[in-house]
Write a structure and sequence with these properties.
Helices cover 47% and strands 11% of the residues. By secondary structure, it is an alpha/beta fold. The longest helix has 27 residues. The N and C termini lie far apart (71 Å).
């Protein structure tokens, strides 16, 4: 009997759990674990995972694969919690958004360091609650892998098999590079949202101004409600990268400030450029010429004893759905309408 343990029951990890349950892996038991008893009760009530516990030891005992999805601030305690009962041959993959931090902690705490693989499944829209857990969120998404150079190849192979099973495309990336990119696209928006709320709420006119707030204020301020403890842990775990990206934002804001102050035509061109870059991102057309060669790993590790039979049958029936976008629909069409 094989065993997979999910440590930290979040909408994302539970979505992975559902995908594993749906795969009907032979002779495989899936166990969920969370230190929050109310979360365990909710998962049991919703019948999302067949077995749930609040004990690290029970969850990892005899496990072949351990999947960790906890906040950055909880990573040390979680690794310490699983370390005592962890089987020597168990492979551990974490979903922590700070890969350098996770790898360093694993090297410090875990007895079988070579079996720890840094991972980060990225989805454009995460489920907001356990009730909304959905395995389809991973289909054609990117699953970042940041294995240590000394990692056991068999452990890497198993985690790639997991990524492919849930429908993701694996992307091998250096941990430091990953953290720099995440600082820009994941953490910087949280900081900008917090700065926006701070700037407006500190205004002497806020008492009256807040009565005029509409959808735009709600959208931009939303990320400021991220748990401050987690935000602090994230920002400090990648402090050097964050400072670099903050400097870039300051430079862009200053350029906009100068264009507005001087009523420069460059203001319009800057706004058009940002409009088009966002449209490219939405259309998945940022790098259409090389999109088929930048994600190594897809379909290359089907021999894993854990997932091999399921993946082989799935890939035999799959078709190539590669999309090509050469129409440049992301081009801004309003230049001629400018007065």
């Amino acid at each position: 009997m094989e065993k997979i343990a999910l440590i930290g029951l979040t909408p994302k990890s539970v979505s992975v759990g559902i995908a594993l349950e749906n795969a009907n892996l032979k002779n495989t038991k899936i166990v969920g674990m969370d230190i929050r008893r109310n979360i365990n009760k909710q998962v049991k009530k919703l019948k999302l995972i067949s077995e749930v516990t609040d004990s690290y030891a029970k969850a990892v005992m005899d496990s072949n694969l351990v999947i960790i999805d906890v906040p950055v601030s909880s990573m040390r305690d979680t690794l310490q919690g699983i370390s005592n009962g962890l089987p020597d041959n168990a492979v551990i993959v974490d979903f922590c958004s700070s890969k350098s931090l996770a790898i360093n902690l694993a090297q410090e705490i875990l007895p079988n360091k070579e079996n720890f693989i840094g991972g980060h499944p990225l989805v454009k829209k995460s489920p907001a609650s356990l009730e909304e857990a959905d395995p389809s969120i991973f289909h054609n998404s990117v699953f970042c892998l940041t294995p240590d150079p000394k990692a056991d190849p068999a452990a890497v192979k198993l985690v790639v098999g997991l990524a492919e099973l849930i429908g993701s495309k694996t992307m091998f990336i250096d941990a430091i590079e990953h953290d720099s990119f995440m600082s820009a696209v994941e953490y910087l928006p949280i900081l900008l949202s917090a700065s926006f709320v701070a700037a407006t709420s500190k205004s002497k006119s806020w008492r009256d101004m807040h009565k005029l707030t509409t959808e735009n204020y709600s959208i931009f301020s939303k990320l400021s409600d991220t748990d401050p403890r987690e935000s602090e842990a994230i920002l400090l775990s990648n402090s050097d990268e964050m400072v670099t990206w903050i400097d870039s934002i300051i430079a862009e804001l200053y350029r906009f400030r100068e264009n507005i102050s001087g009523k420069s035509d460059e203001l319009f061109e800057s706004l058009v450029n940002s409009w088009e870059e966002h449209a490219k991102w939405e259309a998945n057309a940022v790098d259409i010429k090389t999109s088929e060669t930048t994600l190594p790993g897809q379909g290359s590790y089907l021999a894993s004893s854990f997932f091999g039979e399921y993946l082989t049958s799935r890939y035999k029936s799959s078709t190539n759905d590669a999309k090509k976008n050469d129409s440049e629909e992301w081009k801004y069409k309003g230049r001629g309408l400018r007065s």
